[in-house]
Specification:
The protein is an alpha+beta fold and 146 residues long. The chain has one domain: START domain (Alpha-D-Glucose-1,6-Bisphosphate, Chain A, domain 4), CATH 3.30.530.20. The protein contains two helices and seven strands.
Amino acid sequence: MPEAFASAVIPARVTKVWRVVRDFGGLATWQPAVADCVLSDVQAPDRVGCVRTLSMADGETVVESLLALDDHARSLTYGIVSSPYPVQCYRATMRVLPLTATDETFVGWSVNFDCDQAHADELARNFRADIFTTGLRGLADHCYTP
């Protein structure tokens, strides 16, 4: 099963970063790869099973479902319901941890998925670079307060 991982240190307090990350419907406010994000049920944006439809910056559409949200562990897990990507069983997790020495935040973003083995390395690279790394930069910019 292919995997991808990216991480970053965000120059903001963990409570602020977690508030942004846990907002399942707010992805377009900080993820440059996402032009728009619409929740299927705005009354339950933090409930497992909530579905969001992403209009990607490249014109593609991705539908994702919230699989787990743990405020104590500051962890959010989601899966792809439908997308143009040739993947199955896509399960991604964002973890938000405090860096107590500097009052900053560590964010790790990981995924594992199934796909045709011929595409595994390319898809893992693309998810890491085009989605996760770009998104973490956007998250840092969004959360930074001088």
